Every structure is written in C-alpha cells, then in structure tokens.
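Q: Convert this sequence to structure tokens.
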Amino acid sequence: MDKDIKTEKRVRSASAPAEFILDWGVTQNIESCFDRAQRMKPCPIGHVGACCKMCHMGPCRLVGKNAEESVKGICGASLATVTARNIVRFASAGTACHGDHGRDMVFTLLAVANGETKDFKIKDVRKLYKIAGILDIEFEGRPVNDVAKDVAVKLLEDFGRQRGEVNFIKRAPKKTQERWRKWGIIPRGIDRENSESLDRTTMGMDADPDSLLLQGLRNALANGWGGSMISTEVTDILFGTPMPVKAEASLGIFKEEEVNIVVHGHEPSLAEMIVDVISEPDLMAYAKSKGAKGINLGGMCCTANEVLMRHGIPTAGGFTNQEPAIMTGLIDAFTVDVQCIMPAIVEVAKKFHTKIITTSEKVKIPGALHIQFDEHRAKEIAREVVKIAIDNYSNRTKKGSHVTEKFPLIGGFSHEYIEYMQGGRWRASFRPLNDAIMAGRIRGVVGLAGCDNPRFPSTGIHKYLATELIKNDVLIVSTGCSSAACGGSGYLTPEMALENAGPGLREVCEAIGIPPILHLGACVDNTRILTIASAMAAEGGLSDEIGGMPAVGIAPEWITEKAISIGFYFAASGVPVIFGGESPVGASKEVTRIMTEVWFERFKGALHFEPDPEKILALALDYIDKAREALKLKKYEPGKFGTEKVLMDMAARREIEKAAKPHIGIY
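A:
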C-alpha cells in the first residue's frame, strides 16, 4: 500500500461513527475508498465526456480551444456526438442492471407459481390482484398461483418484446404518455432498448446528439416504467408491501457478543431467507454452542433497505460504509448479492476474520468464498451462510474499531401506505397531500436519492439538503443510499419534523404522524415516486400530468450508471432532476442545452449537474416555486396558508378504522 495513506486530517464522512472508524483505520494502515479517492484524481478529459473510446482508432481526445466547433474524432464525430454517446451508454448500463434485477424477481415469482420452490410464497395477494388488474389479467375466482403465473409470464414479455409498448406505460398519466408518443420514446422492450442504445452509440452509427439522447430517454423509461417498476411490484407480491416499521441505523448496530451477519447489495431474495432462518432453534442453539449469545443481522446498501422496509432489520449504511463495517472487527460473514459491491472489501477482510461470501454468478470477487444462490433451495443456502458465520465467530482475533451510537428510524412508506395514511381504508386517497400543496402548507416535494460518494465528505450533502429542504416546508421522499444517509443521521423520525421542519410541513406531519422524510425503499423503488406522482395527477387539483408538479429529484452524491438511468427516466417523465458534482457532459454546451432547456420544453423535465450544494438547493426551490406559479397555486409564504380541506389527525382516522384492522396491502 502506498505510504501517503497517512495524510493530513480531512473529513471523509459526515457520519460521526464512520469518521471515527476511518480515523482508526488510518492508524492501522488500512486503506479505504476515501484514501484511494484522494490519491486517484479523475481523468480531466473523460470526466467531462470529451473522450471517445468506441473503436480502436482511438481513444480520441476532443479537447482544445473551441473544441465544440472545430475538433473532431478520427471518424469525424463531433464533441457533442461523443459526449451524447458516452452518457447514453451510462444510462443503458444502468437500465441493464435494474432490468436484470427485475427479471430475477419475475423468475422467482414464476418458480413460486409453478410450485418449483417451497421456500418462497406469495405474501401479498391483494398486490398480486392489483397488478393483475393493471395487466388485464382475470383474477376473480382463480387459484392464486394461476394468477401469479399469468402475471409473471406477462411481465417477462416486457424484456424480450420487439414491438409494442412496455406494460406499465399505461400507469402514467395520459398527457405524459402523449408527450412520449410525440417524441417517439415509449420503450418497446427492456432488452430491445438496451441493444439499440449500444448499437446506435457505436462508431459509424447515430451522430445526432438530439437523436442519441432521445434514445437514451427511451432506454431509461424501459427502466423506470419497466425493469425497476417490475422489481418493486413483484418484490411486494412475494415479500409483502411495506408499511411503517421501526428500525435502527448506524455502524453501531453490530453486537460484540453475538454472531454478526451483513447482507449487502440489491436483490432481497437470499436476504429474506436469512431473515427467516436466523431465529430457527437449531441455528440459535448452534450459535450458543460456539459461545455467542445470539445472531444479529444487519444490512448494507439497498439489500438493507429491502429487509428494513419489511422486517425492521437495522442498516449499517450505504455504499461508503462497507469497508468501515468490516473495520469494526465484528462482522463474521459479509454476504453480497449484486450491484455496488466494492472488490476492496476482500482486501480489508483479510486484516480481520470476516468471511466475504458472494452469492450471484454475476458478482464474483477473487479471494471471496462463492456460494451460488438458487431459489429452488433458498433456505438451505441461507442456513449454510448462517452456519459459516457462526463457525467464524470464534475466529475474532484482531480487535477493530467498534462504535455503539445508533439512530432510530421509521421506514416502510410504500405507495399504498402513503395513500392509506391520508384517510384510512375507506377514504384513502392523495387528496389531502394535493390540498396541502395547493394551500402552501407543503411547498413542494423532493425525491432525495442516489449514492454516497467518497469524493465528498460522504453523506454530507444529503444531510445538508435534507435539513434545508424541510426547513422550507418541502416534503422529502427518499430512496437508496440517501435513505441510509438520512437514517444514519437520525432524520427519519417524526420528532425530526417538530425540531427542524417549517411550520406548514410540521403541521402536516403532526396531523398524520409521519416523519418529514419518507423512506420509500431501495433504488429500484424510485418507481414508487412515479406511481405516487401519477396518482396525484389523477386525483386532480395540481397538474394533470407528472410534468409541471412542484416536484424535483436530487441525487447529490451520485456515482453509478444506474443513477444516470434514473435521472433520465425522471426527466422524461416530467421531473426536473439535479445531480451533485461536476457534469459528465460538461465538455459540450450543446448536450448540456438539450438535457436542460430542450428536455424541459418537450417533457417538463430536465437533468442538471451542479457541484455547489447551496446552488442545488436554490435551483430546486426555484423549480418548485415556478411550478406553483404556473399552476396558479397560492404563492408560498412560510406560516401563511390558504383554505383547504381539513387533514384528519390520528384520532379521526381511528374512528373510521373501527370496522377494519389495517394490515400490509391496503388498496
């Protein structure tokens, strides 16, 4: 390892527990992603999208004075063409990641329907019937597994379809669909759009930046209204539609006298099985025979969000916390599935006793133990993983840097529960939320999403924006590592509204009994925001399409290609999106203009890149206020509200709930 790891003190993470552990790691000469980020600077040419490596005549570097007008690649491609191709490939890779995730979930549903796996079952039949109805599949009076099979087969068609439209496109408001049809960006099939994106971005193919970017939007819509939405809905069907649950967040969730297992990645299938088996008497007895007092399960990244939302399993944090988690010295098995897995965790684990276990054929890391997950013997594999962790418990030979600080949180705010919480079973709707926005109690809504990045003080921009937005009466819906950042800061409790939210937002939160930041789940669950926005449009009183609502998406510390795909599909759906950090298309003024001005004119959405957190906040509030003005809503003034329908408090809602006990899946 390079000697410059012991550099002058700098803030790596805005999470105090993570920073404490990272400081200890420096004293032990343990390298982390933060050290590598400091040492390895980005390529200044590729960083702004000015490098083309689509063929072996290059790579071509389109730089120099007036490069946009005068510099061409060897084939003659302009800077705008090269920059557009690069970001479209980013979006395509992101769609492929989420598409594969969705496909795997559908295959699991099909295995359940066919009786091929005894370990999984359909936990939310109401949700199954809801999706069947959307897909025009008859469900009344039919066996549940027969309906599930038809749903699975219908959804699998979305991956290979060559002509037509992805099934869930019909869930978008009609006016939003009209915009997509006008510009030819309704996706046909998920794999078809991925393939065409790669085809059109090769050397000698599409050279029109606008045309390329339109294909990028079509490809991304195949993610938002295809792969990711499929994953969210099928996961709810199989494992239950989330409703509010208490949990904890922080690197302090690990227990010194118990076997500690981490589930990390994005697919919930194996994690669900581990949740099921860790309390089995035989495994508990086996753990005690090894000297442990019990078995403690924690999550990391979006697999954490999946099991947190449904079971209250605590989260150790997002992307940048995976190395510090191992540095605690308390992790006996670190089990990973897909996406956002740092290969570096194997090297860190070598300094401790931690077993790194890969479980997907798509994610193998040299030095890790591989146990292939198979849904046909899911619990058997889960027990094998837990037994490995138990056997490893007695091998804790090196003391790490453990912290004990933890933060309570409330998660589990699905589309269905947000609708239910505004009026109960019998009066569930999005009308109270629309009314609160129209009256100015809620200024607008921000979707706070995306990764935490070691090139920043990690999670710091998430925390800054979360605090400032709710002060300005902006309701936040969070997903992915942003939810982990908020949870690990103590921001996901109703008390947070009392202490920090503006007067209007605080009043709404108090009436309903919710936090000012609603944890919606994993990064695929950004699609819950799409269905919520569609329901708000259908409710009336605001915009009759997603575009034009006082809503903004922000990914303040984005890293992945998945984030670009998400940003693209939100922009195409009509939501202005702001990404933190330098622009990957910054080399081209033309591409930047298309993604901001042209997209906003066509779709009422846009994609900005802004490195200054204060400017991100100002831009978001400006978009929200201009949307309010265009909708002729009351001008936002803190503490001054217009006339609106009364938002029912908890007592009023209990009165109408006497006839029915709430449960998962209120539709």
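Residues 1-8, 656-666 have pLDDT under 50 and may be disordered.
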